[in-house]
């Protein structure tokens, strides 16, 4: 995945209720599932934000969401990504409980 700009570092508390447009295309064939999982884990940690995705690969998006929603093992693997993000943020104590429901209600695929 080519880097086009410096990443913006922010927390969910910085911009409550924001609409965030996610770029680049997370479903490009070159993007690894681990990166996708981490981005979706971050979006799950900010339920009051709305994340808008655009992709040239909508089928890949729908397959990704469906597999995690329907396969308990895949969901647990995704939850592990959430745990990694929480540890990086110093919030490992929040990695308990039932976790986010799939599909994430705050993530929208837009045309």
Record the SSE blueprint.
Elements: E1 19-22, H1 33-44, E2 50-53, H2 58-70, H3 72-88, E3 107-109
Parallel strand pairs: 1-2, 2-3
Helix pairs in contact: 1-3, 2-3
Q: List the secondary-structure elements in sequence, H or E.
A: EHEHHE
Distance between the termini: 22 Å
Radius of gyration: 14 Å
Give the spatial strand order of the biggest sheet. Answer: 1-2-3
Uncertain runs are none
Main sheet?
3 strands, parallel
Task: Indicate the multimeric state.
Answer: single chain
The overall pLDDT, averaged over residues, is: 85
Question: What labels would you give this structure?
Answer:
3-stranded parallel beta sheet, alpha/beta, 111 residues, 3 helices, 3 strands, 10% strand
Brief summary:
The protein has 111 residues and is of the alpha/beta class. The protein has helices at 33-44, 58-70, 72-88, and strands at 19-22, 50-53, 107-109. It has a three-stranded parallel beta sheet with strand order 1-2-3, with no helix packed on it.
Structural commentary:
By secondary structure, this protein is α/β, with parallel strands linked by helices. It contains three helices and three strands. The protein has helices spanning 33-44, 58-70, 72-88, and strands spanning 19-22, 50-53, 107-109. The protein has a three-stranded parallel sheet with strand order 1-2-3, with no helix packed on it. The protein is globular, with a radius of gyration of 14 Å. The model has no long low-confidence stretch (mean pLDDT 85).
């Amino acid at each position: 995945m080519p880097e086009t700009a410096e990443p913006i570092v922010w927390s969910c508390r910085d911009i409550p209720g924001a609409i965030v447009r996610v770029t680049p295309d997370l479903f490009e064939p070159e993007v690894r599932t681990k990166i996708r999982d981490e981005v979706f884990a971050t979006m799950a940690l900010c339920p009051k934000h709305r994340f808008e995705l655009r992709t040239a690969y909508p089928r890949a998006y729908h397959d990704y969401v469906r597999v995690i929603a329907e396969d308990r093992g895949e969901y647990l693997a995704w939850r592990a990504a959430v745990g990694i993000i929480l540890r990086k943020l110093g919030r490992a104590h929040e990695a308990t409980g039932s976790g986010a429901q799939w599909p994430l209600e705050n993530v929208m695929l837009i045309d």
